[in-house]
Write a structure and sequence with these properties.
There is one protein chain. The protein has a single domain, classed as Alpha-Beta Plaits (2-Layer Sandwich), CATH 3.30.70. It is α+β, with helices and mostly antiparallel strands. It has helices spanning 12-17, 21-35, 87-94, 98-101, and strands spanning 2-8, 40-42, 53-58, 61-66, 76-83, 105-110. The longest helix is centred in the N-terminal third of the chain and has 15 residues, at 21-35. The strands form 2 sheets. Strands 2-5-1-6 form a 4-stranded antiparallel beta sheet. It has a two-stranded antiparallel sheet with strand order 3-4. The chain has 4 helices and 6 strands; from the N terminus they run βααββββααβ.
């Protein structure tokens, strides 16, 4: 089964920035290790949430707003695709995402086609 892994940064960026340099390097190495995990397809890099534009359609007209759909604390900071045997295996990989240990979270969604 394929899972979409959504990384919510929460306070992770601020907490990671306050780490000693050696620990910051370990965080980057942990992300690189995730990208090399069998079954992982890395997502493209994302910009900061405050640079996002959110689009909604009301009355057939596109309305835009600066910033992410969710508050910056809840904004998606990254994503990747994981092919795993089951949800338990996906949870094991999600627990390795540095953001999850530094104040963020990882949302796991089965990749399903609805059309």
């Amino acid at each position: 089964m394929k899972y979409v892994m959504l990384i919510y940064q929460g306070t992770a960026l601020e907490r990671q920035a306050a780490l000693p340099e050696a620990e910051q390097k370990q965080v980057y190495a942990d992300y690189q290790g995730l990208n090399q995990t069998p079954g992982v397809t890395p997502g493209l890099p994302m910009g900061l949430p405050e640079n996002a534009t959110t689009v909604r359609v009301e009355g057939g007209k596109a309305l835009t707003a600066n910033g992410p759909f969710a508050g910056v604390q809840e904004a998606v900071g990254g994503w990747f695709i994981l092919e795993a045997d089951d949800l338990d295996a996906a949870i094991e990989v999600a627990a390795r995402v540095p953001a999850a240990r530094y104040g963020g979270a990882v949302e796991i969604r089965p990749s399903e086609v609805y059309w």
